[in-house]
Amino acid sequence: MLEVSAINVAYGHAQILRDLTFSVKAGEILCLLGRNGAGKTTTMKAIMGLLPLLSGEVRLDGQKISSLPAHQIPKGGIGYIPQGRRLFTELTVAQNIEIGLMARGSGREVLHDVLALFPRLRERFHQRAETLSGGEQQMLATARALCLRPKVLLLDEPTEGLQPSMIEAIREVITVMRDRGVAILLVEQRVDAVLSVADRVAFIENGQNLETLDADVLRADHTILERHLGV
């Protein structure tokens, strides 16, 4: 589904990613884990074409997408929920979702499906996004991305700063999308959240691969997390 092959990325003269390689299959949740500054958010931006690659490539369903302009990549079926959500806060919930629908020409049936996943957004449909709680804003950012009917969903720390009930709501939606066959790449600092949803975990450090393991291995042996993360 999504293949990231030996990508190298730099900010100016500082190289951040070094031959980073991984893949995410349809119906799988792969979590990127690493210490702060390991290159996780940079990886997300590189996949979305927001940062140029020095070398390497990104493929979706076998087709190279890393040479496409950034605005074309979501149209191919990649939804991205960045850290900080990036909503149009002065617009209503309905208008934010409409932007997501327009991006890939989705119809009313997609709208109804998204609102079924997030019933609280239906209640807030005509409120401005800036009036929502942090958890509701995260729901809206996720709903907008799902309007693309994505094959692949990228989430960058979706539970950051949320209360437990909101974390559980987001976790349930991520699991539903995985069960529908969506490939999910998750960046998450909360180890408990990772272990509750991930199928595999890829550890990175200084922009390089360390190892990729089945999440069941980590659930059984927490010393691996201690070795890589110090937790």
TrEMBL record:
SMART domains for the chain: AAA
Q: Which CDD domains match?
A: ABC_TM1139_LivF_branched
Per UniProt, residues of the ABC transporter domain are: 2-231
Family designation: Belongs to the ABC transporter superfamily.
Q: Which UniProt keywords apply?
A: Amino-acid transport, ATP-binding, Nucleotide-binding, Transport
PROSITE patterns the record matches:
ABC_TRANSPORTER_2 (PS50893)
Q: Does the keyword Transmembrane apply?
A: no
Give this protein's Gene Ontology molecular function annotations: ATP binding
What is the designated name of this protein? ABC transporter ATP-binding protein
